[in-house]
Design a protein that fits this description.
By secondary structure, this protein is mainly alpha-helical. It has one domain (about 10-185). It has seven helices and two strands. Strands 1-2 form a two-stranded antiparallel ribbon. It is globular and about 40 Å long. The termini are far apart.
Length: about 200
């Protein structure tokens, strides 16, 4: 069932989200190996082009980025609406490419700006800053709860407290998610060939 007024999104009840969709996507993400993104995306995912948490917490940030990236991979596997790319991202990337001069920087800056603007709380479907609602698939609420589930799981396994507000870990998660969404719209003929 499509969400009213939101073509390309699945309408869900919040109890169902917490109990089934989020756990299904989370479990699948845990089964996947570290991502192997294309040439301009890989350096943006792994590199220091963007930082969202303190330097001491860089390994945590990297794990959140990878989990967000893989979450989008899993969405495309599981949800038919998610198979449609977020075409609105391509003009943003091209505009940033004109300023930055290279795809990796354009990707990092575009996704960094969008991830920082995303609410760390549950995003409203009509919030223009909530880009997680604008990428076709299960919607911003599923993605919010999935990010929270990922953060919760990670923090339970730590031997020391996180240096910062745990809610802020949603930012690198969204960054990784958006990098994968951008990878889906990158023009293959303008990118280095994959080896």
């Amino acid at each position: 069932m499509t969400a009213p007024g939101r073509p390309g999104f699945v309408a869900v009840d919040s109890g169902l989200i917490a109990q089934t969709l989020v756990e299904a996507v989370f479990a699948r993400v845990q089964q996947l190996d570290a991502p192997a993104p294309s040439e301009p995306v890989g350096p943006a995912l792994d590199g220091a082009h963007q930082a969202f948490v303190s330097k001491d917490e860089a390994p945590v940030e990297q794990q959140m980025r990878q989990a967000g990236y893989l979450a989008r991979v899993v969405e495309v596997e599981l949800f038919d609406p998610a198979k449609k790319p977020a075409d609105w991202l391509e003009p943003l990337l091209r505009g940033r490419l004109g300023e930055a001069g290279e795809w990796t920087v354009a990707l990092a800056e575009t996704c960094g700006d969008l991830a920082r603007a995303e609410p760390v709380g549950r995003p409203a479907p009509d919030d223009p800053a909530a880009t997680t609602w604008r990428v076709p698939g299960p919607g911003g609420h599923v993605r919010h709860y999935l990010a929270r589930r990922t953060i919760e799981d990670f923090l339970q396994g730590r031997d020391r407290p996180f240096d910062g507000d745990p809610a802020d870990l949603k930012i690198p998660w969204v960054y990784g998610f958006l990098l994968r969404a951008c990878e889906e719209v990158l023009p293959a003929d303008e990118l280095p060939a994959r080896e």
